[in-house]
Design brief:
The protein is α+β, with helices and mostly antiparallel strands and 145 residues long. It contains 4 helices and 8 strands. The chain has an 8-stranded antiparallel sheet, with helices on both faces. The chain starts with a strand and ends with a helix.
């Protein structure tokens, strides 16, 4: 049985240079998907019109899945290509930029929260040993689904 690493942290959604909104983000690491991390955001922060129509108490969290290595690299140096970018910011902060067709979201995290989460994920699957946890047959079955 594999241990799922999950942690809920406070973050700030940057709305403008002078405005932000506090939100809770759930970070998750699932050993069966050893190269990825998940960030779940409350549905009310979605840029998708369908989430706005449903109201703040309806709908599922918005979950972004991206490389654990990207999150780790972004703590030290600007990293990322495509939809997810991570970079250090002043004051022991880390910024995660998420790009979707509906728009771009910039979310600030306490770097120590992200480091603690990554440390806990490495206790379950050490860095460099992810290949030992990959299930190629299951991944292929899901892909062909």
């Amino acid at each position: 049985m594999h241990t799922v690493v999950e942690e809920t942290v406070q973050a700030r959604l940057i709305l403008s240079p002078h405005r932000s909104a506090r939100l809770r983000v759930t970070l998750a690491y699932v050993p069966e998907d050893p190269l990825a991390v998940r960030m779940a955001f409350p549905a009310e922060f979605s840029l998708d019109d369908r989430a706005e129509e449903a109201g703040p108490d309806h709908g599922d969290d918005i979950v972004w899945v991206f490389a654990r290595g990207l999150l780790a690299d972004g703590l030290e140096l600007p990293s990322g290509a495509g939809d997810v970018h991570v970079r250090p910011a002043p004051g022991r902060r880390t910024m995660v930029e998420l790009r979707a067709p509906e728009g771009t979201a910039l979310v600030g995290f306490d770097s120590d929260d992200l480091r603690k989460f990554l440390w806990r994920s490495r206790l379950v699957v050490p860095e460099g040993e992810e290949h030992l946890h990959l299930d190629a047959d299951r991944a292929l079955a899901e892909l062909l689904g």
